[in-house]
Each structure stands twice: as C-alpha cells, then as structure tokens.
Design brief:
CATH superfamily of the largest domain: Glycogen Phosphorylase B
CATH architecture of the largest domain: 3-Layer(aba) Sandwich
Shape: globular
Helix content: 25-40%
Structural class: alpha/beta
Number of domains: 3
Low-confidence stretches: 498-516
Strand order of the largest sheet: 4-5-6-7-8-9-10-11-12-13
CATH class of the largest domain: Alpha Beta
CATH topology of the largest domain: Rossmann fold
C-alpha cells in the first residue's frame, strides 16, 4: 500500500500548499502505508534544503528528474575544499561575500555557490570570457550539469548514483524538447511526465493525493489505472463574480480536474462551507454523484491560554508569503493611519517573498520603521503568537488559512475581509475580531485602521479568547489525524464505515452571550 502526494515544486519561500503537505506529513508519517511526497518540477538547487526547512523527511520525498536519472536523495555535503582539489594550481581562490567562492585563472571563472551558512557547494557556474558556459549541481556528489548558450539553457546532463551519465535532456525556451534515457527517446514535457508516472506504476493498492496538477494533469490521469485519485482543493475554487446559477467559472488551477471529475474518486476541501458550494456546483452541471469530503489541511497540537493577549493588545502581526495577493501593503498603510490615534500600536510582518523590498520601502516612506518591523521567515508557534494581541489578514482569497488557524489556536483576535473560507470559518464578527466587505484599496485601508482602533478600545477580550478556544478545539491533531486515517481506510481497504467528518462547527458561535 503506497500513498503518493503530488506537487509541482518547492523552494526557499514555500507556499501554503507546501505547508499543507508538511501538516499532512506530520499526521500520516507514522501510518503503516509507505508515503511519498512527489515534486515534479526541475528544482534548481538541492531540494532537500527546502524539504528539510519545512520538516518533510528526505526519505519520504521524491523528485521526478532525480527519479528518472536514477538518483537518490542526498543532502549537500560537497565542500569547497573538495572542489578546489579538482583544479590546477594556477587557480586563485577569493571569497565572494558569504554566498559564493570564486576560483579564477585567466579568462576562466568558477563561481561556487554555497549552501547558506555552510562551506558546502550547491552549484558551480563556469564562466569563460564573461559568458556563462555551464552550471554543475552537487549534493554529496555531482548530480547534473546545465549547459548554456549565452543566457539560455539548451541541455542538461544527469548522472546516476555511480556517477555515470544516465539522462540527457535538450531544451528550448526553457521547455523540454527531447529526453534521452538509455534507448528511450521522449519528446516534450508531456512524454517526459507520462513516462515518469508510468514508471511509478500506480495500481489498485495505491492512493494518489494531488495537491497541484497544472501542466501534469493529463499525464497523471492517463496513468491512473486502478489507483484511487484524490484532489485537494487548497484555494477558492471558482470566481463568484463571474459565475451564476447556470455557469461556473472554475479556478484555472482546478479546471482540468473538475472537468475530468469522472477520473477523480474524491475532492477534499478544508471547510464544510466549501464542500457545500462545490457539491451544489457539480449538481448544476448534472454531476451530483461527485464525491466531496471535508478534511482540514492544517491542525494544531494544543490550545494556548491567551493570558497575555490583553497585555499585548496594541501589538499586531501578520504571517504569509510576501506576495501581491496578500495585500500586506494595505495593512502597512492601515497601521500607519491607526497609529495617529493609537500611539502604542506596533505591527510585525513575518514571511519572505518577492515584495520584501517594496514593503521595506513603503515602511520607510511612511516613516514607520520604529513600529512596523519586517521579521523575515521564521518558524511560528504559540510562543511567538503569544507575544501579540491581534492578527491582521488582508488576503482576498483563502481556501483555509493555515496562519489564521494558528492565530486562533493562540487565541488571538483577528481582523480580515469577509471572504471565504478561512475568514468566515475562523472570525466571528464582533466576537473574536472583525470582518468587513472588501472594497477599493483606499476603503480597505480606512476600514482596517478603523477596526484596529475598535479592537483595542471595544473588544471583549475574555469573550474573544473563549470563542477562539472552542473554535480551535475542532482542529486538534488527534481529530484531523483520525480523519486521514479513516480516509485512507476507505480508499485503500474499502472500509465504507470508516469515513467520519468533524463535528458540525458552530460557525456563528451559537449564542454568543455564553462567552461573556
């Protein structure tokens, strides 16, 4: 019995999908079934750095390119000194900051890029007469070489565990043209991934959980055989604005599997509200038999007591990738505006991403650096959340909201937009925070500032903490682990009595007076 969890890539700034997989791994890693977390993309660095970073065991992961090349997973242990020994004596060594070491001789430069905070090599660029020729990638050994013509990659050579050439791949515009493995020739991306999934050889004893299907969906489905296929829906799955009672505009990331729903045994969503929406929409298209189940993507280990929240009520945080869709700039501007009436206010931003510099520039422009801080990517738990008195989220679309669940488990009051599904699941307006309708960016800045001020002056924190504890208790690890165990039993062993749902979640908190 094998369970495959299918994803595309992973990198230094993992998305909510990778963290959802990490949560799932923590729940299922001690199950008796073999588990593989499969990453299908070509990953430029040794991907064990990134799986280690989020807590996925190396032996439970598998990459399509390494698998096809006959490579095993190894951590990066190839040292600068070991590389230097391969060079002739006329090369001079020079540190290039903390990130790289240069070896130079005449017109030839080897730039050895380091694994952060080590003297181990991730990759080595070969530059001749200021032109990039090749990039050699290492773990504890040479794994593959990328060859360049000017700035464009045109070929990759991969080596197996014995150091022998095992796979050649030719590219144009960064897309696979052909792949050569032994006597096999594969044309394009499609044939490469089709052969990869064919070699995984799914059968009736396997469960395939698909977290991302973009660009690999057709190849996956045509290799289904008798395996059970499950799609996890991580985000809002349709555009409400562009849909009506007769036609649904699906999220493009899920459109292929929704259209080919007959090959999918189950769709898994994180909230009962999304389950009801998706079932109703399949019914509109005449497919009410499509199976949808609710299993939260995240869980919590324990509930916090929230005893310091009132003491820290002027101190807010947010945590996410620093990406445009998170609208953290709106929060920065709102906090700066609220600060005019709340001099004690402070705001900390946790996360990494492409908008880091933009946000730092905005904070400087607002002269807010003494009370708005960029904290970078950090492991967040109740010991961190417990230092704050409130959580802010400006995202306009969350399938669940892992950090929102973490904030609730820490009993933090939350301010966010009135959007499905995380905010409506975890925020009861005027009980444990505030929700409001999204509007223009300026309207949102004004409303966030208004709600921040209202929270610190009017919110009943005892009531908010009590509500948060009851809401979060449904998501304790043992509860969610049992859901996955039951789901595995149903799909792998046919135990139709096994699948259970979480108890009905009192989304409105019932009679809110009982939290007084």
């Amino acid at each position: 019995m094998t369970v495959y969890h299918i994803n595309k890539g992973i990198g230094p700034s993992s998305s909510g999908i990778e963290y959802a997989q990490k949560y799932r791994f923590d729940l299922v890693k001690n199950f008796p079934e073999k588990q593989y977390f499969v990453f299908c993309d070509y990953i430029y660095s040794n991907y064990t750095r990134f799986t280690d970073n989020i807590g996925l065991d190396m032996d439970a992961t598998l990459n399509a390119y390494k698998f096809m090349a006959g490579q095993k997973n190894h951590r990066s242990t190839y040292t600068v000194e070991a590389f230097q020994e391969t060079l002739s004596a006329d090369f001079t060594r020079q540190a290039d900051g903390a990130k790289a070491v240069n070896f130079m001789s005449g017109e030839v430069l080897y730039k050895a890029w380091l694994v952060p905070d080590t003297q181990n090599i991730d990759r080595v660029d070969t530059i001749v007469s200021s032109r990039l020729q090749e990039v050699a990638h290492y773990t504890d050994r040479l794994t593959n070489i990328d060859y360049y013509s000017g700035k464009e990659i045109f070929c990759r050579y991969f080596f197996n565990e014995n150091g022998n050439l095992s796979m050649r791949q030719f590219l144009q515009d960064n897309k696979i043209v052909s792949t050569f493995i032994d006597n096999l020739v594969l044309y394009g991306n499609s044939e490469f991934y089709d052969e990869f999934f064919r070699r995984l050889n799914f059968d009736k004893n396997d469960l395939v959980i698909i977290d991302r299907n973009t660009d690999i969906g057709a190849e996956l489905l045509q290799n289904k055989h008798e395996a059970k296929f499950v799609v996890v829906v991580h985000a809002e799955h349709f555009s409400e604005r562009m849909s009506d009672e007769n036609w649904i505009l699906w999220n493009n990331y899920y459109e292929y599997v929704f259209t080919n729903h007959k090959y999918i045994d189950y769709f898994v969503v994180s909230t009962d509200e999304q389950k009801a929406n998706l079932e109703r929409q399949f019914g509109i298209y005449g497919h009410p038999e499509t199976k949808v189940v609710t299993i939260p993507v995240g869980f919590i280990e324990q509930l916090a007591d929230g005893e310091l929240i009132k003491q820290n009520k002027y101190k807010f945080l947010t945590a996410s990738r620093l990406a445009a869709e998170k609208h953290i700039d709106v929060l920065v501007r709102a906090v700066a505006k609220a600060k005019q009436n709340i001099p004690e206010l402070a705001f900390h931003i946790y996360g990494a991403g492409g908008l880091d510099k933009n946000l730092r520039d905005l904070i400087a422009q607002l002269d807010a650096s003494d009370y708005i801080e960029m904290k970078g990517h950090q492991h967040l738990d109740n010991s961190v959340y417990g230092q704050y008195g409130g959580y802010l989220t400006a995202s306009g679309s969350e399938g669940f909201g892992l950090t929102i669940l973490e904030a609730v488990s820490a009993c933090l009051p939350i301010i966010g937009l009135d959007v499905d599904y995380g905010n409506t699941e975890f925020i009861e307006d005027a009980v444990n925070g505030f929700r409001f309708e999204r509007g223009t960016e300026e309207e949102q800045v004004d409303l966030f500032a208004e709600k921040i001020q209202k929270m610190v002056t009017e919110l009943n924190y005892d009531k908010a903490i009590a509500f948060a504890k009851e809401k979060a208790s449904f998501y304790l690890a043992d509860n969610v682990r049992q859901l996955w165990r039951d789901f595995y039993d149903l799909n792998l062993y046919g135990n139709n009595e096994a699948l259970a749902q979480l108890p009905a979640q009192a989304k409105d908190g019932g009679d809110s007076d009982r939290y007084e």
